[in-house]
Write a structure and sequence with these properties.
The complex is a heterodimer.
Chain A lengths: L1 H13 L4 H24 L5 H6 L1 H34 L5 H13 L2 H12 L4 H10 L7 H27 L2 H8 L4 H12 L1 H17 L2 H6 L10 H11 L1 H25 L5
Helix pairs in contact in A: 4-8, 4-11, 5-8, 6-7, 8-11, 9-10, 13-14
Chain B lengths: L1 H27 L3 E8 L3 H14 L3 E8 L1 H9 L6 E3 L3 H6 L4 E11 L1 E6 L19 E4 L4 H12 L8 E3 L2 H9 L5 E5 H7 L3 E5 L8 E8 L5 H12 L1 H9 L6
Helix pairs in contact in B: 8-9
The chains are: A mainly alpha, B alpha/beta.
Chain lengths: ~270, ~250
């Protein structure tokens, strides 16, 4: 309430918002909102529940939920240390590594899939070694789906956490060190709690990216119901035969993701 | 305070510019352009035929868009600025019916074959080997025409195993095989011809029962219907038929 009142007083002292900001802002909002509204209006709601009940949709939803959850766990487990290294440790090639970490952000997802094949495919550099040593191949498995999702989602997480670590600064780390904490304790008790908003924001970004991931998955992991077919793959496939079904499936994905975000928001993300 | 206003004006202008450019183009240009939407399996032949068409019609540009038949049919119905549609089965052509100008004509046929990587890593010598259980093979998803044929062939041959992946189009299936990411794949005879030495080709029992017809039609939204029809005539005429036969297509 107080923030609201302050905002209003500040606003009246500063004058009316300039048209040069209001017009482009409204245009941006319209561009983002209108297609979503028309998608809602265009959804054949009559068949919504029927579609939700089909085997293919349930399999794809389950796989999407599973893959995105594991992706977030992997991002947090591996991405947090990487973000800490990038933010706190001065090592040769750090700038280069940071740039490399950001590359998947601009890579077309299909290219990400091709890159994964060259590394982890049956004849990829790492994949062929793995195949020779264990007989195990990664493509066409749910593991491949998670790897593809992690590849495209990790940059969002790492950059978000690294930003939070840099913003919170090294001063508290130094204080903790002078009080006798070793670096591991400092990380757990001081650095990480301070960077928590970045961790949560990064995890949500990674989860959202994983939820919609399509190109890298279908290129690297393939597309088979129950093992590698996620919702976006199913939607793309449905688009080829029945656009109406595709719209219903899109709406299911949209409803599930918005509901999850809303639930998370109530629990963790109440903005002060 | 003036700078943001200028930026906003520039931004607004930049939104309008492409529209203005479009308008000017149509009036001043003497060059004629037709856009052909063609199934992915026609990539080689239609690129060749488009070159011939441009040579025979100076000043004419043929734009080609290759994609899955269903995607193209949907684009045609949605009013995509195109003149000719050629699909890899009759069902997708039928789904584009509202956008068609006249009846579609079948100009070629295709049969399905099994391809393996050139070195045949899984040692596949016949179709029955797919049932061994240790063979990783891929096919099209059954919403795509190539997937419908593959599914019919699975049934005709009582196949008990299933593909490792259902790809969205036949090029993706071929890519999985040529990159050695799959031991075998269901592709059209023409894809096997195009892949040349990269693959080994095996016949599929009952494939002759599941022949795929390729229809072509001009589109209602065409702004140059006569030129569009000339392209269709090239495809269905002697030259077109020779190019198609060389690529492994069957007679209509």
């Amino acid at each position: 309430m107080t923030t609201h009142a302050t905002g209003r007083t500040l606003g009246s002292t500063l004058g009316r918002p300039p048209l040069a900001l209001v017009l482009p802002g409204a245009l941006a909002a319209a561009l983002l909102v209108v297609p979503l509204v028309t998608l809602v209006l265009d959804t054949p709601w009559g068949s919504f529940l029927d579609q939700l009940g089909t085997r293919a949709v349930r399999d794809a939803l389950r796989l999407t939920a599973l893959a995105s959850a594991i992706t977030v766990v992997v991002c947090v487990a591996l991405g947090t240390p990487l973000a800490w290294l990038l933010a706190r440790v001065d090592f040769p090639g750090r700038t280069l590594l940071r740039a490399a970490v950001a590359v998947p952000l601009v890579l077309p997802p299909v290219v990400a899939g091709v890159a994964l094949v060259t590394a982890l495919g049956r004849n990829g550099l790492v994949g062929s070694l793995l195949r020779d040593a264990t007989g195990w191949t990664i493509p066409y498995t749910t593991t491949a789906v998670v790897i593809a999702h992690t590849f495209v989602s990790m940059p969002f997480y790492v950059l978000s956490v690294e930003g939070a670590l840099r913003a919170s600064g090294e001063r508290y780390d130094v204080v903790a060190a002078t009080l006798g904490a070793d670096r591991w304790t400092t990380f757990r008790r001081v650095t990480l709690p301070l960077a928590m908003p970045g961790v949560i924001a990064g995890a949500i970004l990674a989860w959202a990216r994983s939820l919609g991931e399509f190109g890298a998955t279908i290129t690297f992991a393939g597309n088979y119901p129950g093992t590698t077919q996620t919702m976006p793959s199913l939607i793309y496939q449905a688009l080829q035969s029945d656009p109406e079904v595709a719209r219903t499936l899109s709406m299911i994905l949209l409803v599930v993701s918005v509901a999850t975000l809303a639930a998370l928001r109530n629990r963790w993300l109440t903005t002060p | 305070m003036r700078v943001p206003v200028k930026i906003a004006t520039l931004a607004a202008l930049s939104l309008l510019l492409p529209l203005a450019a479009c308008g000017g183009d149509d009036e001043s240009s003497q060059d004629r352009t037709i856009t052909v939407l063609a199934a992915a399996s026609l990539t080689g032949t239609f690129t060749d035929l488009a070159d011939r068409f441009e040579r025979d019609h100076p000043g004419v540009t043929v734009k080609l868009a290759f994609d899955s038949s269903a995607t193209l049919a949907q684009q045609a119905v949605d009013g995509a600025p195109a003149d000719v549609l050629a699909t890899a089965d009759t069902a997708t052509m039928d789904s584009a019916e509202p956008a068609l100008d006249g009846d579609p004509e079948v100009f070629a046929t295709n049969t399905m074959v099994l391809v393996t990587p050139a070195d045949n890593p899984a040692g596949i010598s016949g179709f029955d080997d797919l049932d061994r259980g240790d063979v990783t093979y891929v096919a099209c998803v059954d919403t795509a025409p190539c997937g419908k044929v593959a599914a019919a062939l699975f049934a005709d041959n009582d196949l008990t195993t299933h593909p490792a992946s259902l790809e969205v189009d036949v090029k993706a299936v071929l890519a999985k095989v040529t990159s050695d990411e799959a031991d075998a794949g269901f592709v059209y005879a023409t894809d096997a011809v195009a892949a040349g030495g990269d693959v080994e080709t095996l016949e599929i029992p009952h494939a002759a029962d599941e022949i795929t017809p390729y229809p072509i039609a001009t589109l209602a939204q065409s702004e140059d219907g006569a030129l569009a029809q000339e392209f269709v005539d090239l495809v269905t005429g002697t030259t077109g038929q020779q190019v198609l036969a060389d690529a492994g297509f069957g007679k209509p």
